[in-house]
Write a structure and sequence with these properties.
Blueprint: H1 7-21, H2 26-33, H3 39-44, H4 52-61, E1 80-83, H5 85-90, E2 93-97, E3 100-107, E4 116-123, E5 146-152, E6 155-161, E7 164-170, E8 175-178, E9 184-188, E10 196-202, H6 209-217, H7 219-225, H8 236-246, H9 251-258, H10 262-270, H11 277-287, E11 305-308, E12 315-319, E13 324-330, E14 341-347, E15 363-369, E16 374-380, E17 383-389, E18 394-397, E19 403-407, E20 414-420, H12 426-433, H13 439-444
Antiparallel strand pairs: 1-18, 2-3, 3-4, 4-10, 5-8, 5-10, 6-7, 6-9, 8-11, 12-13, 13-14, 14-20, 15-18, 15-20, 16-17, 16-19
Helix pairs in contact: 9-10
Length: 456
């Protein structure tokens, strides 16, 4: 039997943490929330489930949002959640555009723990040229989620950036990474063989609390807070000014703290020049931040996309015992998302005792490519599990769960892996790593009042 989801326990821990943050003990919480004496502790320990009425009342009388008291569901209690190909086929639905069938969609493995929204899509529209303005092509308006796309068969990829349309003919093994809200489309180049994609969309840091906060702050604040990846005042200079504004630091004060001339400080503030490595170190020290806080991320996307053709993809072997376990091929990605990794895994061994384990801090999505099944083994909570995945099967794997692949019944199994960051960003990891002794366990599930009524 899989372990219980633990939803009630996590809900109780969030309630305790919220009350602690607001400095309410059980008696005060019960009085303000209109609860019977002794019941708050029952909610906290999970023996009485936190219901919507209690959450509504807490958000009404305390400066909390309902979201602050809602845990997420654990739909992968064994560490891996598998969706079989027949389940995927059962989710099939056809979406029409301009009154005619355009795509067939099928769900693949998703989890409530991660921001993946991955779909298998078959192109129903066939074109006979590679022109970006082909009138048979129906464009979308773009969507919020980032999209990694893996191509299966002869598919034309269409994308539009700043009003300019492009068409790139793609084939099996090619891949693309694209930015949100850029219009795009797909079409088949022939009706004699399947033309499909794996559209692996994910939210990254754009979804969740950040989006909800900016929705409250409004459009002007969102535009003001945006930092484009460009040189000049809106790029590097904007980051520097942000920390100056936060500390109410003037240009003269920053110059005095760093030893830079007032003229040079002004050039860096207005973005007319970029700081050297030595100047970055001085600026960081002067502002009391880390150097990385003053660095813009880098992007190699051209017109909003990074295209990786299979013929140009870099591959290497990952060793096992006595032979290579896997051949790894790096697929499309971008330095803007350093915590996103897209890989094609060619499985080379049929013995789990010889194959290498793969483990990562990222959430993992996998899809079985080609025509051959693959065996997967993983370990979670002290137990070992093993399954055979058929072509078209997909799965979600929790972070830090070691997995290994082996040839199941001969052939040459291939697996697509898309690894993404979750809400546990590097900043969160650093913060958790600096908690007081014993703090990590309480952070994951607060289980006590923040002080002892009996005294020290």
């Amino acid at each position: 039997m899989p372990p219980k989801d633990g939803f009630a326990r996590r809900a109780g821990a969030l309630l305790r943490a919220g009350a602690n943050d607001l400095k309410r003990d059980d008696e005060n919480a019960e009085r303000e929330l209109g609860l019977e004496k002794g019941t708050f502790a029952q909610y906290v320990d999970g023996t009485r489930p936190v219901d919507w009425e209690l959450i509504r009342r807490a958000a009404e009388v305390w400066p909390l949002n309902e979201r602050d008291l809602l845990p997420i569901h654990d739909d992968s209690p064994l560490g891996v959640h598998i969706m079989r190909d027949e389940e995927s086929r059962a989710s099939s639905r056809v979406l029409s555009r301009a009154g005619e069938p355009y795509y067939e969609y099928r769900d693949t493995a998703m989890s409530r723990i991660a921001s993946y929204r991955p779909e298998w899509i078959r192109m129903l529209r066939v074109v006979d040229d590679n022109e970006a303005d082909n009138p048979l092509v129906q464009w979308n308006h773009g969507h919020l989620l980032y999209q990694f796309t893996y191509f299966l068969g002869p598919v034309n990829y269409y994308y539009r950036w700043d009003g300019v349309s492009h068409c790139v003919p793609m084939g099996t093994g090619d891949s693309v990474w694209g930015l949100p809200f850029a219009p795009h489309s797909f079409a088949a180049r022939t009706d004699t063989e399947p033309a499909c994609i794996l559209a692996l969309t994910y939210g990254g840091a754009l979804v969740g609390d950040a989006q909800r906060e900016l929705a409250v702050l409004g459009r002007p604040a969102a535009h003001a807070l945006a930092v484009p990846l460009t040189d000049g005042a809106r790029g590097p200079g904007a980051l520097l000014r942000s920390f100056m504004d936060a500390g109410a630091v003037t240009a003269a004060e920053l110059a005095a703290r760093t030893g830079l001339s007032l003229r040079r400080t002004g050039e860096l503030i207005d973005g007319s020049d970029s700081p050297t490595a030595e100047e970055l170190a001085s600026l960081a020290t002067g502002l009391g931040v880390s150097v990385r806080d003053l660095l813009l991320p880098r992007s190699e996307a051209v017109d909003g996309v990074s295209v990786q053709h299979a013929r140009d993809a870099r591959s290497w072997e990952l060793p096992g015992v006595g032979a290579a376990s896997y051949r790894i091929t790096r697929l499309a990605g971008d330095p803007l998302h350093p915590h996103t990794s897209a890989l094609q895994i060619d499985v080379l061994l049929d013995d789990f005792e010889r194959t290498a384990q793969l483990s990562t801090y990222q959430h993992q999505y996998l899809y079985v490519l080609g025509d051959d099944p693959v065996s997967i083994r993983w370990e979670f909570a002290g137990e070992r599990y093993e399954e055979t995945l058929a072509p078209g099967d997909s799965a979600y794997v929790r972070p830090q769960v070691p997995i290994a692949f082996a040839i199941a019944h001969g052939g040459h199994p291939q697996v697509l892996l898309l690894r993404i960051a979750g809400a546990v960003t590097p900043e969160v990891r650093h913060a958790v790593g600096t908690l007081a002794p014993g703090g990590i366990d309480r952070y994951v599930a607060e289980d006590r009042l923040w002080y002892s009524k009996e005294g020290n």
